[in-house]
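> call design_seq(struct)
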């Protein structure tokens, strides 16, 4: 069997296992595989099928090269990913490098073993367009104009209204009217 057949067997063996996702994304409320959840079982499946992966990092590329243990063929399966940076708060550069390498190793293994993960983009709720706020009505603007003429509007509100008259929303206009009613009643 060639190296690709061996990898196919290793993947099938791996996916027959019952693995538990221990990583938790509290914000998006989903679980994911951490490297430790699958690394040893994946290595065992590869070894059982005569394969060994070797990971290396270069400045701009992380690579996993899968070799046959008995080296019967010269074919190597190579999986690569562009390098990225990690900027973890309060960490030294070497700690950021370690984070990058750990993430890269995880993603290379996920690719090699065809591990299915939660897809945050596909499973997130659709982004709903919020309707544009309604503009202030003619009646609201007339009331505000009357308050302005009666010198009830504060200088700050007069200035704001002058700048935002055409874009004023119903809610903003109502806030101004309510303020003026309170000033009028005082």
């Amino acid at each position: 069997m060639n190296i690709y057949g061996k990898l196919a067997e290793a993947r099938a063996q791996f996916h027959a296992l019952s693995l538990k996702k221990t990583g938790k994304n509290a914000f998006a409320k989903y679980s994911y595989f951490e490297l430790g959840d699958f690394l040893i079982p994946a290595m065992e499946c590869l070894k059982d099928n005569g394969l060994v992966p070797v990971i290396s990092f270069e400045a701009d590329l992380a690579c996993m090269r899968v070799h046959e243990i008995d080296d019967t063929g010269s074919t190597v399966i190579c999986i690569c990913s562009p390098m990225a940076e990690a900027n973890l708060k309060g960490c030294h550069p070497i700690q950021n490098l370690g984070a990058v390498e750990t993430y890269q190793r995880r993603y290379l293994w996920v690719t090699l073993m065809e591990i299915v993960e939660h897809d945050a983009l596909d499973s997130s709720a659709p982004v709903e367009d919020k309707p544009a706020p309604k503009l202030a009505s003619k009646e609201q603007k007339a009331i505000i104009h009357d308050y302005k003429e009666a010198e009830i509007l504060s200088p700050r509100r007069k200035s704001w209204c002058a700048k935002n008259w055409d874009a004023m929303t119903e809610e903003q206009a109502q806030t101004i009217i309510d303020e003026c009613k309170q000033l009028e009643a005082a």
